[in-house]
Write a structure and sequence with these properties.
2 domains, extended, mainly alpha, 0% strand
Length: 111
């Protein structure tokens, strides 16, 4: 379901079922699988992405290490830092539109 669910593909179709004329696209078993998968995914941590089941039998199931530096995250960090000590106003976020600042109608070129 990790592939099918986000794409709206019935599990039985993904597994090879051919939907004929007059056949329902989603079988009861497909709907049950989708609901079960969604409920399972809803328990996943929004911060680290792990699921409680990952830790149930092994408290060392995952480990942490530093990632490679992401150029996009670095740009967002620099822009956030440039705002100053008062930070961003509530509801304002640093985003990464595609292309150079000079081509962005909302940006002024920065040196």
């Amino acid at each position: 379901m990790a592939y099918c669910g986000p794409r709206g593909i019935p599990l039985s179709v993904f597994l090879g079922r051919v939907v004929g004329p007059g056949d329902p696209a989603w079988l009861r078993s497909d709907r049950d699988a989708a609901v079960e998968w969604a409920a399972h995914e809803a328990r996943r941590c929004g911060s680290c992405g792990t699921h409680p089941d990952d830790w149930a039998d092994n408290r060392h199931a995952h480990h942490a290490h530093l990632s490679d530096q992401c150029p996009g995250c670095l740009q967002k960090h620099r822009r956030t830092e440039a705002v100053g000590k008062d930070g961003l106003p509530p509801g304002v976020h640093v985003i990464l539109p595609r292309g150079p600042a000079a081509a962005c109608p909302r940006c002024k070129p920065r040196d």
